[in-house]
Amino acid sequence: MRIFISSDMEGTAGVVDWEQCRSSGADYGYYRELLQGEVNAAIEGAIAGGAGEFLVNDSHGAMANLRPDALAGRARYLSGRHKPLYMMQGLDASYDAVFLVSYHGSMAGEPSALSHTYNPRAIAEVRLNGVPAGESGINALVALGHGVPVVLITGDEVTAREIEPFCPGVRAAVVKSSVSRFAAESLHPEEAREVIRAAAREAVAQLPGAVAPAITLPATLTVRFRNADLAEQAIWISGTERVDALTVTLTDEDPVRLYRAFVAVVVLTRGLAE
């Protein structure tokens, strides 16, 4: 049984500030260890459920946050920037399930610690087939393209709710409760890992009945930017259509191709936003 893990960082119990999850931050080393513990807990739970092979795609920031030698289960580690499939690089149809570890809420959703949707400086909201979507829902497009179910997500309660329309039945390990975008009540790290281990074990046990994400094709991503210049730049990507001053849409019957187009928009607009 092969498990693909996409690991972010903002959803880790205890993380509530950008400096805690940026390599320049004074306490980054401590919080990256907390992230490592949660990734390992997901692997350990999956092993207890019968899984035996893992690929961890480091998907946060510069995408080099974990210690390869400290990964549980002798997991393979995919790290580094400029990945064509970004947070979902490495996933293919040979995998049995997807885990999304330490994910966070969307920019336009309910208060969620360090909420954003790919680029907080550029993107104000994304909708997938008209439904507000965070990174989890957008990334589920790649899972759909390969026919692989998303069976586990970890983070706060907002993140757990946001993925449900796209991956009904996904097992959620809620490790903190957000008070605002920069405050949350978190479980003790040891308890957070226990919750994740149990959820991962249950997710793997229920895998025989799991199905690929429930996203109708052709699918449309509606992206609202923070200013009109960003929307203007986004339509440089072929197939992107302007809806109004701030909003563009991308539509495709191929979910992986749609995701790649979205990533191209994100990368293109990042330079202008920053």
Give a description of the structure:
The chain has 274 residues and is an alpha/beta fold. It has six helices and twelve strands. The chain has helices at residues 28-49, 135-146, 157-163, 189-205, 228-234, 255-273; strands spanning 2-7, 53-58, 76-78, 97-101, 123-128, 131-132, 150-156, 171-180, 183-186, 219-225, 241-242, 247-252. Strands 3-2-1-4-7-8-9 form a seven-stranded mixed β-sheet, with helices on both faces. Strands 6-5-10-12-11 form a five-stranded antiparallel β-sheet. It is globular, with a radius of gyration of 17 Å.
Keywords for this entry:
single chain, 274 residues, alpha/beta, seven-stranded mixed beta sheet, five-stranded antiparallel beta sheet, 12 strands, 31% helix, globular
What is the terminal separation in angstroms? 42 Å
Q: Give the helix level as a range of percent.
A: 25-40%
Total strand segments = 12
The low-pLDDT segments are: none
Sheet-strand content, in percent, reads 15-25%
How do the strands line up in the largest sheet?
Answer: 3-2-1-4-7-8-9
Roughly what is the average pLDDT, rounded to an integer?
A: 97
Number of helices: 6
Give helix and strand order, one letter per element, not per position.
EHEEEEEHEHEEHEHEEH
Oligomeric organization of the protein chains: single chain
Shape: globular
Largest β sheet strand count, sense and barrel closure? 7 strands, mixed
User: What structural class should be given to the helix and strand makeup?
Assistant: alpha/beta
Outline the fold blueprint.
Elements: E1 2-7, H1 28-49, E2 53-58, E3 76-78, E4 97-101, E5 123-128, E6 131-132, H2 135-146, E7 150-156, H3 157-163, E8 171-180, E9 183-186, H4 189-205, E10 219-225, H5 228-234, E11 241-242, E12 247-252, H6 255-273
Parallel strand pairs: 1-2, 1-4, 2-3, 4-7, 7-8
Antiparallel strand pairs: 5-6, 5-10, 8-9, 10-12, 11-12
Helix pairs in contact: 1-4, 2-6, 5-6
